[in-house]
Design brief:
Blueprint: H1 4-20, H2 23-28, E1 30-38, E2 46-49, H3 51-63, E3 67-75, E4 80-90, E5 93-106, E6 109-117, H4 120-126
Parallel strand pairs: 1-6
Antiparallel strand pairs: 1-2, 3-4, 4-5, 5-6
Length: 128
């Protein structure tokens, strides 16, 4: 089990990878069978499985010019969550959502990610 400091470092590294487009860093934080599940009905919705697929999803989201405003890290006994405020504008459509990206950990790495959103309809419109 990771310490709180180790969980904070893992969460910070994941956020850093997103904002700096350091896909190798993100890949290094994931188990080989990692998954990422997002709500909605759009290009980034659904579940992807495998570390490479998770990295590709992160690349796709970042490719839309999303600003990942870090709010805080939340920790549980075994896992962690990043609280973020994501914003972007594209073709007159504005993204403005609060989210929790919950990371389920195994062997010191991220084994599964599930994202919870404040505005699924807005996400659908932006990532159509």
């Amino acid at each position: 089990m990771l310490t709180t400091d180790e969980k904070l470092a893992l969460a910070t590294a994941f956020h850093t990878g997103l904002v700096t487009a350091d896909w190798e860093l993100i890949r290094s934080l994931l188990t080989d069978d990692a998954s990422w599940t997002l709500p909605g009905d759009n290009r980034i919705s659904g579940r992807v499985v495998g570390a490479d697929a998770v990295v590709e999803r992160a690349r796709l989201i970042a490719g839309y010019g999303v600003n990942f405003d870090f709010q805080r890290v939340l920790v549980s006994r075994d896992n962690l969550a990043l609280s973020l405020h994501n914003t972007a504008e594209r073709n007159g459509v504005r993204l403005d959502e609060y989210l929790a990206t919950v990371c389920f950990l195994r062997d010191g790495k991220i084994a599964a990610i599930e994202t919870y959103l404040s505005d699924v309809d807005g996400m659908n419109a932006f990532f159509c």
